[in-house]
Amino acid sequence: MSKIIIKNVKYLDRFLKSITKFVPSCKFDIDADKCSVRSQNVSARAFFTTNVITSESEISFCLSDLTKLYQSIKTLADFKEDDSDCVINYDGTFLRMKDIVSFKLTTVKEDVVRDTVTSDIKTQLKPVFGFKLRNAIMNKMNSMQFMSQDSTPKVYIYKQKIKGKDVIIGEIDNKVQQLVDSISIPLSNSFFGEWETSIITDLDSFGLWNPLTADDINVSFVTNGTAKAIISLSEIKEDDVYVKAKVLSSVLKQ
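The structure assignment produced for this chain is given below.
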């Protein structure tokens, strides 16, 4: 029997909620320092880490319906009145909790969830340029889908001078087709690197860059010399507790 220690129920709630934005099922890898989840969907790959749950022994388990664990922990957070640690017992088949809220969840074999589990990034990706993006501005960009006739609008991100100052712009457009509507807004005035090209993504992928709904995120255009991609980094923390997310998505062509 392995014991999984929960240090902060509310942060575990946010950790699980962020994963459910990506996938319905996943694999958890837990050790004495942290918990890691590597997930993928059709739009992006995401790597989540947190120290809100740990275990003295290294354990791994898979859930085919992540929502059940998320809703169970959310319910626990609603009833729990103190900051004491909680324990989930894992016997190789079931996750069991006996606390003010009790539950039992069945785990599954890894081959059941293989389509939603990804491997670690095996190549060295070097940041070329990037910018800081506030969550409030990101939400504003996500709300601009009304402007596009495409089911999945493209987002063009580039540097432009506005009133003599360099600004990072986000534009919903389709530069391949003619006679299409478009809209652009300023995304950031905090950036780095030489912006020799635009970042092109789609709105679905863009909307996944901040699964933690952190106040702001760091977005980078990265390459290994051949392949090109977009990486977004976000983090929420309180005292010694943290939750981190790294999202890897593709760069689209014009």
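Interim note for the steering committee: The CA atoms of residues 122 and 224 lie 11 Å apart. Residues 126-250 form a domain with the Proliferating Cell Nuclear Antigen fold (CATH 3.70.10.10).
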